[in-house]
């Protein structure tokens, strides 16, 4: 009997029997950059911070924190000082100056660009953080013009301090719709190319380790291919010129389960889904229209198991005191961003 206890203890200590699991609450949130919205950043920051504090997620994929002061604003709010930050190190001043030309204000020193990660630093250690550009060259940003904005993906390896379990977590923001080849004919879809590139980078990392991506993918469940076939050339060019954001089939590429590597949407895996609001009534929510996603990678050789208990969309509104150059819309409460935060609570099994 004594020998059996000793042998079992040895097996458990050295991991020959694995029964570890990890409870995680993950959020994806495009906070709408301070330069982007008519609803002033200073008027929105409390609502943005309150949204994060209300859920207290373990890790957050943040999009559109363009400058270091944006991050400081979010984290200086009450209750958010527990988060560490992983942001891309953009490199040379030449690269930063190139990116800065695409915005109207801000400093080279403060530039963080378009995707970061917040994580609870009392629970996790972050290591091996890196980023890559989504474009022709993963080591430098692509060109900026009226139809293309340089985009990147940032990720790190996180270790749970109590269990030593490890997983990757990343944040990214895809470009909008189709771009124009030589300014005339529609060519390869930016969203589609970025989806393909993201999977290529994900594949080797996710072969042995769970990997989550949070993404404003500018793409959802719906196809538009059949709709585009009915558009004339003139009307198609006009749509681009009017900056209508066409939703591509990038989501379908990311979630194609017949591929060697693909991403599962945690909303689809949820036992329960809900809308969280402080309003007596709210607008209808259909997640198939959402372009904001939380994904778990699956590969041909490694398919991590996860039980997603709940996924919610946060539709809280906050008082609007000022608007850039005007008065708040009809004096009504406003959303703190033009995107709603998505939160999934789950247990990851190793």
Structure commentary:
The chain is an alpha+beta fold and 350 residues long. It has a single domain, classed as Endonuclease/exonuclease/phosphatase (Deoxyribonuclease I, Chain A). The protein is 23% helix and 31% strand. The chain is built from nine helices and 15 strands. Strands 3-4-2-1-15-14-12 form a seven-stranded mixed β-sheet. Strand 6 and strand 7 form a beta hairpin. The two termini are 29 Å apart. The N terminus is likely disordered.
List strands and helices in order, with pairings:
Elements: H1 2-13, E1 21-30, H2 41-55, E2 59-63, H3 68-75, E3 83-86, H4 93-100, E4 115-120, E5 124-134, E6 151-160, E7 166-173, E8 178-181, E9 185-189, H5 190-205, E10 211-216, H6 225-228, H7 233-241, H8 250-254, E11 261-265, H9 266-269, E12 270-276, E13 292-299, E14 305-314, E15 341-349
Parallel strand pairs: 1-2, 7-10, 12-14
Antiparallel strand pairs: 1-15, 2-4, 3-4, 5-6, 6-7, 8-9, 10-13, 11-13, 14-15
């Amino acid at each position: 009997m004594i020998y059996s206890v000793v042998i079992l203890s040895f097996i458990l200590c050295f991991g020959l029997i694995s029964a570890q699991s990890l409870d995680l609450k993950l959020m994806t949130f495009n906070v709408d950059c301070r330069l982007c919205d008519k609803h002033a950043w200073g008027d929105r920051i409390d609502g943005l911070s309150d949204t994060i504090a209300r859920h207290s997620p373990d890790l957050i994929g943040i999009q559109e924190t363009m400058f270091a002061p944006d991050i400081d604003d979010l984290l200086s709010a009450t209750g958010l000082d527990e988060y560490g930050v992983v942001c891309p190190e953009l490199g040379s001043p030449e690269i930063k100056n190139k990116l800065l030309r695409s915005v109207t204000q801000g400093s080279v020193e403060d530039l963080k660009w378009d995707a970061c990660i917040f994580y609870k630093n009392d629970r996790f250690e972050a290591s091996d953080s890196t980023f890559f550009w989504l474009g022709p060259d993963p080591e430098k940003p692509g060109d900026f013009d009226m139809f293309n904005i340089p985009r990147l993906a940032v990720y790190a390896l996180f270790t749970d301090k109590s269990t030593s379990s490890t997983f990757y977590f990343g944040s990214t923001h895809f470009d909008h719709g189709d771009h124009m080849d030589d300014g005339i004919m529609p060519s390869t879809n930016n969203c589609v190319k970025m989806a393909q590139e993201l999977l290529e980078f994900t594949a080797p990392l996710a072969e042995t380790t769970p990997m989550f991506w949070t993404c404003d993918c500018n793409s959802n469940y719906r196809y538009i291919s059949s709709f585009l076939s009915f558009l004339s050339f003139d009307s198609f060019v006009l749509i681009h010129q009017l900056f209508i954001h066409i939703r591509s089939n990038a989501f379908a590429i990311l979630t194609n389960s017949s591929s060697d590597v693909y991403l599962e949407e945690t909303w689809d895996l949820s036992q329960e889904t809900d809308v969280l609001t402080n309003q007596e009534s709210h607008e209808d929510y259909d997640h198939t229209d959402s372009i904001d996603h939380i994904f778990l990678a699956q590969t041909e050789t490694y398919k991590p198991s996860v039980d997603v208990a709940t996924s919610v969309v946060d539709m809280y509104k906050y008082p609007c005191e000022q608007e850039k150059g005007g008065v708040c819309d009809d004096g009504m409460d406003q959303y703190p961003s033009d995107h709603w935060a998505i939160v999934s609570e789950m247990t990851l099994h190793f």
